[in-house]
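Issue 218. Parser rejects a valid record. Input:
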Amino acid sequence: MLANLLYLMALMLLSPVILYRMLRHGRYRRGVRQKLWGLSNAQTKIMTGGKRCVWIHAVSVGEVNLLPRLISQLEGVTTLPIVVSTSTDTGYDLAVQRFGSQRVFFCPLDFTWAVRRTLRALDPAQLVLAELELWPNLIRIAAQQGCPAIVVNGRLSERSCRGYQKFRKLTETIFRSLHWVACQDETSFRNFVACGTDPQRLQVTGSLKFDDAPHDRDVPEVKQRKVWAGVDSSHQVWVVGSTQEGEEQMAIAAFLKLRLRHPQLRLALVPRHQERFDRVAGLVTQAGLELRRRSKVQMPRSVSWSSNEIILIDTIGELRHWWGVADIATVGGSFGDRGGQNMLEPAGYGCAVSFGPNTRNFKEIADRLIGAKGAWRLQDGEELIGFVDRCIIEPSFAAALGTAAQQLVHQHRGAVACTVERLHRELQPPKITAVAEAPTGPPCDDEVTRQIA
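Output the parser choked on:
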């Protein structure tokens, strides 16, 4: 009841912001009934055919992108229907695109009535949470109904850990209630333990992002975008993706200087949030450059990509394929306070990868890439100019970065197989033994799945 009261108070306090975003950007309008009241029996019968299911929750686009390989392999070992929930409009649209509308829904807000109604209607055999979506009522009520709550690709940073520990009396029960957590790295393992999770319920399986990272540019999705953009063999394509406020200005300013020395350079910008697309478009035109918006020009053009033209990718779910168009990649969300974005997708393609000083959300991955000499960390716009300049002047430098990045990604694959094996094992009926055995992890590569005592 206390959680319900706190949620209601938070909604009241945030209502002006929510209302503004609803009116200005069209956000939060969809799925209101599912969010506030949960799923009905009629809705779940369409999704599951009346059978028990596996419920996987992925909050937004980044988490949804992790699921196709995981779900595909899980479907190979279980006959249970798999349904997917998300919390954002963009995540929902991408999930529908990937998995079909009949098994995707908006996750209920963490009100007891909405959670109970959804869990009662779905009757899931497992609740699988991608990365870290620890909602008290959802996890508590799932446990009460005999549904184990499992976290896959679990990431818990030092900063988040300290935040949870400040409210340990409220949060420790949540962490103790987790049935199993597949941690991305040893840091997350230690932080889950510090927050109250039983070490026997934790395992370092590695990051699903390594398995999900692309590795082949010779695919239709990348080829189609090269044709659409008008890329030719003389171009050096620089993609700056997942950007936040301030990073597009920095990239445009760098491009204006760099193109004077390197007329073959081409720039594509991919902002993180759709409500900023128009703002970024304005920045391009204000700089005196031509603008081509992905959403406005759908058909391939017969003309080459002009040196005076910046392409704005103002669509959702395409960045993965645009990294495949890039020779040089700068991963945004890292020059401001966001904490970075996924740098494994451009690394998997063998791009010359760079990012800013703030990558706390991807600390282990960023450190591994830098340690393997597969990426460069930059401090500001001047260093960004120097990096791109060197990649063009010294092709061997850019090629060495790309090769090292691809090798690192390849070495750390395997988390999906380990995770699916354990999920499948947890779905099996418990064996009756004389002495209860502590849970153990699947027989995965020791390098990736080593447990910490």
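Fixed in the parser; the record now loads. The first helix runs from residue 2 to 25.
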